Amino acid sequence: MQKKYMNMLKKVPAYIVVGIWIIIALTPLLWMISSSFKGEASLMSTPPKLIPDPFSLENYKKLFEKPIFLWVSNSVLVATAVTIEVLLVSSMAGYAFAKLNFSGKNILFWLLISTMMIPNQVTLAPLYELIMRLGFLDSFKALIFPPMAAVWGTFLLKQFIQTLPKELIDSGRVDGASEWQIFSRIILPIAKPGLAVLGIFTFVGHWNDFMWPLVVIREPSKYTIQLGLSAFRFEHTTAYGPMMAGATLAALPMILIFFLLQRYFMEGLTVGAVKG
Amino acid sequence: MSKKIIRNKEAIAGYLFITPVYLGFILFKIYPLIKAIIMSFTMVGTNYVGWVGFSNYIAVFKDYTWWPSVKNTVIYSIIVVPCAIFIPFFLAAMIRVMRSAAQTIAKSCLYLPQVSSGLVLSLVWLWIYDPFSGLMNYLVGLVGIPPQIWLGSVKTALLSLILMAILSGHGSSTLLYMAAMGSIPKSLYEVARLEGANWWHTLRNITWPLLRPTVLYVLIMSIISSFQVFTPSFVMTRGGPGLATSTIVYKIYNDLFSYFSFGTATAEALVLAIVIVGISMIQFKFFASDVEY
After folding, report:
1. Domain encompassing residue A152
2. Does one domain contain both A188 and A52?
3. B49 or A124: which leads in pLDDT
């Protein structure tokens, strides 16, 4: 009995250290959300209060003088389109690389993978030039088409589809299904967990993307929420209240997605590091 | 005969299935990559002027804003990368002794800051560091430190961005470490405990060495991301005061879209790419040894 208590006691430091670290890590986000509901007076109060008192929507009113709804819906549109595109393109390629035999397969796969480490900044100028020549500047096309080079997605889904039994495909062939039918009717349905992981990471990643939209979108009506917020920041350098309201609006959908789909986040993280 | 037909059909399907990704890959990755190399040897400003040899590269190294940006990026990485390796390692080791309900809560709390964009975090921290109304001056005031102009002073600006990076990441690495720790056989720890090893000994002599593949992965990922830090410099400080927080990628962005010197900017980006790929290769050489349990 005493030993049991000793064991529990030994774990106390772990709880304390992890607890303190979590408080530190979450403070900025809590601070952001709580401040977004503070009025001008309580925003600057010392000592700072975590619970807004009085509770106020002043900041959101100020923020909505800008076309926030438009920016949010632009972000939804772009992130959704990119997610669908990436899922389709990478599931097809991932399936081919995992289960189909064709000559040059390995070389073609490694060529894709080898570019993963090259930083995006290298292609920033030429890609900008290309987008300009295609007439895509200031258009959602500039945000939607380049992610078609879904290297990471292809890698991830190849890893996932590889673990599915080959017999499924063989039985499909015996039944006389075409290659496309095997892919769309047999593989896609059982690959759903992998697709979910990729879909969530793609959506969140493109919702949060900042540098590329900054480069190709100048027209305020085409801003994503991230661009709109950054423009707001440079227009009103110290309007922290509305800034926090905007940051909350940009972060909250992702936080909700995270809580609803946590399981997939946790799964997806380990895929990249698996050897093989 | 029919087997051969099936094999042909399979091969054709294979090529067709990878066509979309390869279209995107060639158009938006390979072509720009080759073009970048060409640009760095042929462009001055926004014009193609024909072969200019290594003059863009030489211009990069002579540029008085290049080396401070390199220095800032290196200082940033030297502090941030070890934190990104060890903090999640210890967090993971500690979370693993907790009860499973507490583990789940801890994991989600740690991961939460990572679903927020760099821009959101930059805006929040911009305010935290505000000299008049920011949280940071209030907190340091509690321990008697006078208020600082965190982002406005050459002495503290870069350190402030570093502190922000250290405090707002680690979720995904912690989860990776935890997953890897879970795959180490329990029997190893039992044997060690019978021989009288304490928590620290087992962590140092069993967990750490067996986690080398994961450590390598976290190391390379954090080097890549810290060498590419951009958003905080752009949003919070505009690289300033002076050049105090100008990073390599911030400088590349500025050279492209403020000064329109495409030739030198792509040369800078290629130098960065070579450094990143080079460092990763070296890490692979030194670190990658197959771990067997």
Report:
1. 61-271
2. no
3. A124
CATH architecture for segment(s) B64-118+170-287:
Orthogonal Bundle (1.10)
My answer on whether A52 and A179 are in the same domain is: no
Q: Are residues B130 and A240 in contact, defined by beta-carbon separation less than 8 angstroms?
A: yes
User: Could you tell me if residue A8 is inside a domain?
Assistant: yes
Query: Which portions of chain A are predicted below pLDDT 50?
Result: 274-276
CA distance linking residue B154 with residue B237, whole number of Å: 11
- Find, among A114, A79, A109, A75, the residue nearest to A95 by Cα: A109
Q: Would A249 be classed as within a structural domain?
A: yes
- If asked whether residues A131 and A49 sit together in one domain, one would say no
- Is A89 contained in some domain? yes
List chain B domain ranges. Answer: 2-53, 64-118+170-287
User: Which residues in chain B have Cβ-Cβ distances shorter than 8 Å to A14?
Assistant: 94-95, 97-98
Q: Which two tokens stand for residue A76?
A: 């939804």
Binary contact (A179, B13; C-beta < 8 A): yes
Looking at the structure, do residues A148 and A46 belong to the same domain, yes or no? no
pLDDT tens track for B143-179: 988 888 899 888 899 999 999 999 987 888 898 898 8
Confidence (pLDDT) at B293? 45
Has residue A226 been placed in a domain?
Answer: yes
Shortest distance between the Cα of B252 and any Cα of chain A, in A, equals 8
Partner residue opposite B106 with nearest CB, options A18, A47, A250: A18
Cβ burial, residue B43 (10 Å; 0-12/13-18/19+): buried
**In this structure, what are the phi and psi dihedrals at residue A96, rounded to the nearest 5 degrees?**
-60, -45
Number of compact structural domains in chain A: 2
pLDDT tens figures, B22-47: 999 999 999 999 999 999 998 788 78
pTM score of the predicted model: 0.88
Give B58-108 pLDDT, tens digit per residue.
Answer: 988 999 999 999 999 999 999 999 999 999 999 999 998 888 888 888 988
Task: Tell which B residues from 203 to 242 touch A, by Cβ distance under 8 Å.
Answer: 213-214, 217, 224, 227-228, 230-231, 235
Proportion of chain B above pLDDT 90, given as a percent: 39
- Cis check: omega of the bond before B241, within 30 degrees of 0: yes
CA dist., res. B171 & res. B112, Å (int): 7
